Amino acid sequence: MSSQNATVRQPQREKGRLRVAALLDAAQQVFAEDGFDAATMTAIAARAGASIGSLYQYFPTKEHVADAVLARYAEALYQRMQALQDASPEWRIDQLASELFPTLIRFRADHPAFGGLAESERGPALQATGIRKHMRRYVAEILRPHAPGMDTEQLEAMAAVVLQTMKTAVALTNEIDLPHRPAVLAQLQQMLALYLAAQLPAST
Amino acid sequence: MSSQNATVRQPQREKGRLRVAALLDAAQQVFAEDGFDAATMTAIAARAGASIGSLYQYFPTKEHVADAVLARYAEALYQRMQALQDASPEWRIDQLASELFPTLIRFRADHPAFGGLAESERGPALQATGIRKHMRRYVAEILRPHAPGMDTEQLEAMAAVVLQTMKTAVALTNEIDLPHRPAVLAQLQQMLALYLAAQLPAST
DNA sequence: GCATTTTGTGAGGACATCCTCATATACTCC
DNA sequence: GGAGTATATGAGGATGTCCTCACAAAATGC
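Structure tokens for the assembled complex are given below, as produced in the milestone run.
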């Protein structure tokens, strides 16, 4: 499916690769500030110091831009998840939980456009739903060594709870006028630990 | 601040009130299906069986329509919260929790446009942020009789956790491909109960 | 029935956005 | 230097949406 329209190009020279990178950086910022719907191609091109024509030379559509941004994010995200999955068998479950928590919060803080793009139903559906599924799988696989005999369906249900709780934590992080924020986040984390402990047998 | 533009009218006759009600019903549906940004005034008017001019006679702006819809929702929501607050001193905290949970889930199920309108930063900001604050206050007041001596800031922080957990539950309810959904929701509820028990002294 | 007020209508102006295309510039390789 | 390719440009077409406005219809009171 790597067919490309005649007017859409892959960068062939260093200059092109730099431009694409600049365009994606700009898109990242604009999406983060305005969200997918309100972001405009003109604004993205302008912030990258390029013309609209240049933007459309590499991305045939606003959705394609968003998908490219998400693909970039996904790569970074999957790396961190893979590291956690590799380490999973050797760690205790509560250690995993208290590692996963700040990992995802930091990721969301470092990639402010991610939430708006990944959670919106409208817009870049291509990558977005795929990312959600991948993340559920990763978390399920991280949990698996600590839940011997549990089937994949149950694991993925638990993973959904874990991920949604993470999303909750991110939402709280961004909430204005919230007193005792660090304490609240700590309580959320503890709440999640209690949940995991209740669902999994005693860890080694 | 009840100043109104010359071209914007309050309904004076029964016919007008009916039309406004029909318009709000239609807006509810369209917002629920398309979200605030993608919803169009033309679609709202059409679904209400009215003309665009008629719509603009009562609502000067799309935001005003959304705000009116939210105001309607808020009224229904505050009623239920007030009932819980009134009953709070006489109930045990775990009873309150297991009442609050389905109450909010049912509310969201009955008012499918609520989430999209209340949670979006862009769009109807007028009502949306106000509703969030009101809800925090309600939950804080519901918790207060069971947390003697706890100051308002701490109560509102707990309320934020409770509300965000509710949002998690709603998100899980709407998640497709989630196996064991009822069991998962029950677990979430139990998780919240554990959290509350840990934060509050033993109830009477 | 007639005057007044409220309600209803839909064509179209103003504006913004996505995207195209013909053309110009920069680069590479011989 | 010149041919060939990749990159750059921005005016403008197509489209869609918000909202206005001049006027028509209906309801009310007398």
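The radius of gyration of chain A is 20 Å. Chain A has two domains: 14-60, 70-199. Further analysis is deferred to the final report.
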